[in-house]
Design a protein that fits this description.
The structure holds three protein chains of three kinds. By secondary structure, chain A is of the alpha+beta class. Chain A has a domain of about 250 residues: Aminohydrolase, N-terminal nucleophile (Ntn) domain (Glutamine Phosphoribosylpyrophosphate, subunit 1, domain 1), CATH 3.60.20.10. Chain A is about 30% helix and about 30% strand. A seven-stranded antiparallel β-sheet of chain A has the order 8-3-10-1-16-15-17. Chain A is globular. Chain A starts with 10 loop residues before the first strand and ends in a 5-residue tail after the last strand. Chain B is α+β, with helices and mostly antiparallel strands. In chain B, strand 6 and strand 7 form a beta hairpin. In chain B, about 40% of the residues are buried. Chain C is globular. Chain C is α/β, with parallel strands linked by helices. Chain C has two domains: about 90 residues, 2-Layer Sandwich (Alpha-Beta Plaits); about 300 residues, Aldolase class I (TIM Barrel), CATH 3.20.20. Chain C is about 30% helix and about 15% strand. Chain C has an eight-stranded parallel β-sheet. In chain C, strands 6-20-21 form a three-stranded mixed β-sheet, with helices on one face. Chain C has 15 helices and 21 strands. The chains are: A alpha+beta, B alpha+beta, C alpha/beta. Chains in contact: A-C, B-C. At the A-C interface, helix 6 and helix 10 of A face loops of C.
Chain lengths: ~350, ~150, ~500
């Protein structure tokens, strides 16, 4: 049986996200309850969470979460880490035994900063340096997989129902201002922890329900810019596109959405001349960044979250607001189970983004 | 009134208009029989003029003031007052050929085989659409009202 | 000498029961094959002159005619085939180079027919093109590395000139001289109404065609026929022709018989003179020379039009394409070895060059490896025969396709491959007034409109089946293709997996 990276595995799923726009932090109970309601959308072969604001005591360090198949791969990877990073502290990510979760790999986390001399020698920006180290480990270190590499955030994922994964990782002990979560229904049985969502790179995390038909066009586009699509998953390529547009090309969230879920030509024909020129340029330059096929995604980053559907809305996505909290999920019930009286509930149109930003951050 | 107009720019002088005109005016309406077996052999009501640089197919113009009608001694040549079509009543026609002389275009054909009567384009009233126009391979004939 | 070593290629078979002696065949054969014999009162045929163009077959009102390959046979020999033997007789008799028209006829593999397209089911819904928007438009031209916006979200970056096509198809270069003015008029009018482009070829551009300028690609070939500043600015895109798929490495040849008044004016050469394009451009002996020419053309047109460079598909196409992209070309056009021509030496046409499918896959992959694929647009030609070929080409990595043989077939060509004689019975590859008349641009225009419109619908159906509603998501999307009956090397070069994987 081939795993992700050796073969492309399509899947359907459930997603959910909770953001507090004031930066107030809550524990993982709510997000677990929300994703648990959508149990039928998963088949127990993958679940995961991303949490932002969980490591305030190490908020300037990169928190690397790594899976190891065995101690041999751990040793060689740690050798690489030691050569490239100063490790402030490291340890196993605490977990509890949970029925339904077994066969887990070794799960470790390291709080690191790039070694100053090596960083200077590489002449790269810090974020680019860390990204390349992550690609190196994931592409070349057999048996090791970095599944989270951001500051003051972390991904927690594995093979199992998401609610079980959440309890396995004791997420009720973490406090975050942004939680996203994902339950997976792959049409294959990979049994590999690294394949679950979210996919992360630096501070970006993406959970995704859908199967994009433009995958190979997108992949061959981002690979030109140094991204290694080792997992061959939609989520991976979507995350890389966001990283390319937002971090490397320094575009805003709105532009990224205009590129990835660009309006139809017949809609463009009705716009002002200036907008027509703008969208013609976007569709010319970023034509291979257009995501085609059904998707609903939640992009998490340190400044908030972005939820988006494909242009013809082939997957569900519902949003709600109460007070300072923004909720998005695949089903309204998954929101109401944790927020029974939202002030506002709505379903965004295809291609129309829902953006929630945290005050005081980016 | 819709008439057949020839465009000498596109006429190839191939003569297919003649073939279909004969077939349309035959007893059997079958191309092979009309050309190889029928007695009398049907006659084409078109003249295809060919030259080195220019060709065109000539047929009756269904004139507003038809000279053939004026010339006809028996009244066989008639212009229908409503639709404007000029036709020959072959029962009345005696084959004097005065119409042939009178027509300024030379568009009337002497049909000796069919009992010595005058034959002319009738815009294929039998089939509804002029066959020559329908079958011209190069759009050189048009059925239009240009008045 | 009355000893004929060869014999007629074709037999003219007439059903005497059906022949009505209308003489249409005789009147319409420029090779003077048919004749009404007044003594026998029968139509007779001199098959030695027949080229199998089917003009008589198509026009015979009773379908009495059939042209067949002459079944007179040599002793069966898989190596010394009938044509191999007859070609030697011809050359021994004439001492000349064998000439052919149209494209390579040899049974090399056609890779389009060995690739299969995907469809979406269950995990990803297919899209119904009759009820949902389905976008087939493409933009050709150089693309900047990224876009910049100001704080209000307005576009700051100045875009290089782009050409927009409603369907990812363009009519490829066929010079005025090799084909008739009526054929050009049909192509120009159809390109205009379809919102695509047509290409002047190396024959220059007659003044009355300037009105179709916005849909015209003006070509600058090695002979520089008809090239002057007005010409350059008349079109919407410029194309430097370095090579042509049918005859890589050699220049064009238009026999003096085909150079009449109009051709002479458009090409700026004397009447009746052979128009021979040199093999290389004599000012392009290296890649930096090409860069110089590209920028001279851009200067001459004030940087308002994209410049394309057309090459034939040969062994090191990827390296050449990479050089062309870096030399400043906005579009790279690659012509495969099956491409057509008005006249080419048979040995060059049948033995030089490589299939466009392989060249395209290799060039696209190389440009991506060098991270420059997004800078330029790729256009491919060299036997694109139907909409499935177009879809497969785009999945391999092309932005758009060039068609030429398909367009000519649409307006009447029967692939008799005798274009170089100038006696095209269909009015396409000829300059004789009486033959050119046979191609009525109104009829030809309609047929081209029909063909491309039909292909557009088929492309939409195939896209919808794959779950894609915008053609740019198919570009380079090789996972949508699977090979069948290909060996591992071929699969590797095409960058696709085998069906079943």
């Amino acid at each position: 049986m081939k795993k992700e990276g050796e073969i492309r595995i399509p899947s359907g799923c459930a997603i959910s996200g909770i953001l507090n726009k004031n930066g107030e932090r809550i524990n993982g109970e709510d997000i677990i309850t929300s994703i648990e309601l959508m149990r039928d959308r998963s088949n127990g072969l993958g679940g995961g969470f991303a949490a932002y604001g969980i490591y305030p005591q190490y908020e300037d360090l990169y928190a690397l979460h790594i899976f190891y198949d065995d101690l041999v791969s751990k040793a060689s990877t740690e050798d690489f880490l030691n050569r490239h990073f100063e490790i402030e502290t490291a340890g196993k990510i605490p977990t509890r035994k949970k029925k339904g979760i077994d066969g887990e790999p070794l799960i470790w986390r390291y709080f690191v900063l790039p070694r100053r001399f090596k960083l200077h020698e590489s002449e790269l920006k810090e974020s680019e340096y860390v990204a390349r180290c992550v690609f190196r480990i994931n592409g070349h270190y057999e048996g090791a997989y970095v599944f989270s590499s951001g500051k003051n955030m972390g991904a927690f994922k594995g093979v199992g129902y998401p609610e079980d994964i959440g309890r396995f990782f004791m997420l009720e002990t973490y406090e975050a201002y942004l939680w996203t979560s994902h339950g997976r229904f792959p049409t294959n049985t990979p049994g590999w922890w690294g394949g679950a969502h979210p996919f992360t790179l630096l501070n970006w995390s993406v959970v995704h329900n859908g199967e994009i038909s433009s995958y190979d066009a997108n992949r061959r586009f981002v690979e030109m810019y140094g991204y290694d699509c080792t997992l061959q998953t939609d989520t991976e390529v979507i995350t890389y596109i966001f990283d390319l547009l937002l971090r490397k090309h320094k575009l805003g969230l709105k532009q990224a959405v205009e590129i990835m879920a660009t309006p139809f030509w017949r809609e463009i024909a009705l716009m002002s001349e200036e907008d027509q020129k703008k969208f013609e340029a976007i569709r010319a330059v970023y034509s291979s960044a257009l995501i085609n096929g059904p998707f609903s995604i939640i992009l998490g980053f340190e400044g908030g979250m972005l939820a988006l559907n494909d242009r013809i809305k082939l997957r569900p996505l519902v949003a709600a607001e109460k007070g300072d909290t923004l909720y998005v999920a695949s089903e309204e019930a998954a929101i109401r189970v944790i927020c029974s009286e939202p002030e506002r509930v709505w379903s965004p149109r295809g291609g129309e983004p829902i953006i929630g930003l945290v005050e005081g951050r980016r | 009134m819709k008439k057949v107009y020839a465009d000498e720019k596109w006429c190839l002088g191939c003569g297919l208009c003649n073939v279909y005109c004969r077939t349309c005016h035959s007893e059997t309406n079958d191309i092979v029989k009309a050309h190889n077996f029928e007695e009398p052999r049907p006659k084409s009501r078109l003249h295809v003029e060919t030259g080195e640089k220019v060709n065109f197919a000539l047929q009756c113009r269904h004139c507003d003031d038809p000279k053939c009608v004026t010339a006809c001694i028996t009244g066989a040549m008639q212009k229908d007052p409503d639709i404007g079509l000029v036709t020959n009543d072959t029962d009345r026609c005696v084959g004097c050929w005065t119409c042939v002389l009178a027509c300024p275009f030379g568009a009337i054909v002497r049909d000796e085989d069919a009992g010595k009567v005058a034959a002319k384009c009738d815009l294929c009233v039998k089939s509804g659409e002029p066959e020559c126009v329908k079958h011209c391979p190069n759009n050189a004939l048009k059925f239009e009202d240009r008045e | 000498m009355s000893l004929q070593l060869g014999w007629p290629d074709y037999m003219v078979i007439r059903d005497e029961n059906r022949c009505i002696k209308c003489e249409v065949c005789a009147k319409q054969c420029a090779n003077e094959v048919h004749k009404l014999d007044s003594d026998y009162d029968k139509m007779m045929a001199d098959e030695s002159k027949c080229v199998n163009c089917h003009r008589c077959v198509a026009l015979c009102p009773t379908r009495a005619l059939k042209i067949k390959v002459n079944d007179l046979e040599f002793k069966p020999n898989a190596n010394w085939t009938g044509s191999a033997i007859k070609e030697i007789y011809k050359q021994a008799s004439s001492g000349g180079v064998l000439l052919s028209g149209m494209g390579n006829t040899k049974p090399y593999p056609v890779y389009w027919d060995k690739m299969l397209i995907n469809a979406s089911q269950v995990t990803n819904p297919s899209i119904d093109p009759l009820r949902e928007p389905m976008e087939t438009s493409v933009l050709l031209g150089r693309k900047p590395e990224k876009l910049e916006f100001d704080k209000d979200g307005k576009l700051k970056t100045k875009m290089p000139p782009q050409v927009k096509l409603d369907v990812p198809v363009m009519f490829s270069a066929m010079s005025f001289g090799s084909i008739s003015k009526n054929a050009h008029e049909a192509l120009a009018r159809a390109a205009t109404d379809l919102n695509i482009m047509y290409n002047t070829g190396e024959g220059g551009l007659a003044k009355e065609f300037y009105q179709y300028g916005p849909n015209t690609i003006v070509q600058i070939a090695s002979g520089r026929f008809g090239v002057h500043p007005e010409y350059l600015n008349a079109g919407a895109m410029l194309e430097i022709k370095i090579g042509q798929g049918a005859k890589p490495g050699i220049g064009g040849h238009l026999p003096g018989e085909k150079v009449g008044e109009a051709v002479s004016k458009a090409r700026m050469i004397p009447r009746g003179s052979d128009a021979i394009s040199p093999a290389p451009h004599h000012d392009i002996y290296s890649i930096e020379d090409l860069r110089q020419l590209i920028y001279s053309l851009k200067e001459a047109t004030n940087y308002t039009k994209p410049v394309s460079v057309k090459i034939a598909a040969v062994h090191n196409s990827p390296a050449i394409a990479s050089g062309i992209a870096r030399a400043g070309a906005d579009i790279i056009a690659i012509d495969g070895f099956r491409g057509g021509t008005g006249a080419a030496p048979s040995r060059v046409r049948d033995n030089v060059g490589i299939p466009i499918e392989l060249a395209l896959a290799a060039v696209d992959q190389r440009l991506r490896e060098e991270s420059i694929r997004n800078d330029v647009s790729l256009v491919v030609g060299g036997s694109i025969r139907n909409s499935a070929d177009i879809v497969k080409a785009i999945a391999l990595g092309a932005d758009a396709c060039y068609i030429a043989s398909s367009a000519l077939i649409a307006v009447g060509c029967h692939m008799c491959q005798n274009c170089y004689t100038g006696k095209c019975n269909w009015g396409i590859a000829t300059q004789r007034d009486d033959l050119v008349k046979r191609l009525n641009p109104d009829i030809a225009y309609e047929r081209l409109m029909n063909l491309i419109t039909a292909w557009k619908h088929e492309i939409e159906e195939l896209l919808g089946g794959m779950g894609i509603n915008a053609i740019e998501s198919l570009r380079g999307n090789r996972l949508m293709l699977r090979g069948i009956g290909l060996n591992q090397k071929e699969l590797d070069i095409l960058g696709i997996q085998h069906a079943g994987e």
